[in-house]
């Protein structure tokens, strides 16, 4: 089985973003290790979630690790259905851990993302919400009393 592909605007955005990284040296390691590391970083983030900058910094790190696993997989030709599944499960696990502490409405968005992940797997077209990035914007706006 092939891994689902990104479509539409997300495909264009990722191609442009990934294109900027062609000169950056990346470690030739199993991308699944990076995916699992992003879950561990999320656990560290919520360890002291009352500290805004701690939480913010570690969620950014988790998001960057999620991006890095895909870059490594593509650069070293390690994309596969199994790798996509590991990445997807680690992403949802990371969201579940994070949104457990910030239940409403984030946990419900997380449940929607689980459904979208199942649809992605079945249709082989990538459909998920960038919840951690949206959450970062939300907590940043909230921290500075803009919402």
From TrEMBL:
Pfam family, one: CDP-OH_P_transf
GO CC aspect terms: membrane
Keyword terms, alphabetized: Membrane, Transmembrane, Transmembrane helix
Any one GO MF annotation of this record: phosphotransferase activity, for other substituted phosphate groups
Entry-linked InterPro entries: CDP-OH_P_trans, CDP-OH_PTrfase_TM_dom
Transmembrane segments: 29-47, 53-72, 97-121, 127-144
Any one GO biological process: phospholipid biosynthetic process
Name the UniProt record assigns to this protein: CDP-alcohol phosphatidyltransferase
Species for this entry: Candidatus Komeilibacteria bacterium CG11_big_fil_rev_8_21_14_0_20_36_20
């Amino acid at each position: 089985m092939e891994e689902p592909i990104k479509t539409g605007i997300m495909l264009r955005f990722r191609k442009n973003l990934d294109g900027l990284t062609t000169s950056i040296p990346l470690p030739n390691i199993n991308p699944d290790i990076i995916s699992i590391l992003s879950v561990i970083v999320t656990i560290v983030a919520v360890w002291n979630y009352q500290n805004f900058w701690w939480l913010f910094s570690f969620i950014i790190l988790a998001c960057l690790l999620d991006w890095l696993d895909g870059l490594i997989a593509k650069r070293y030709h390690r994309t596969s259905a199994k790798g996509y599944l590991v990445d997807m499960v680690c992403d949802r696990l990371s969201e579940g851990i994070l949104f457990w502490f910030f239940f409403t409405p984030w946990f419900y968005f997380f449940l929607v993302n689980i459904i979208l992940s199942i649809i992605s797997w079945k249709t082989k077209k990538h459909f998920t919400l960038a919840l951690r990035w949206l959450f970062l914007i939300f907590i940043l706006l909230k921290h500075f009393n803009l919402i």
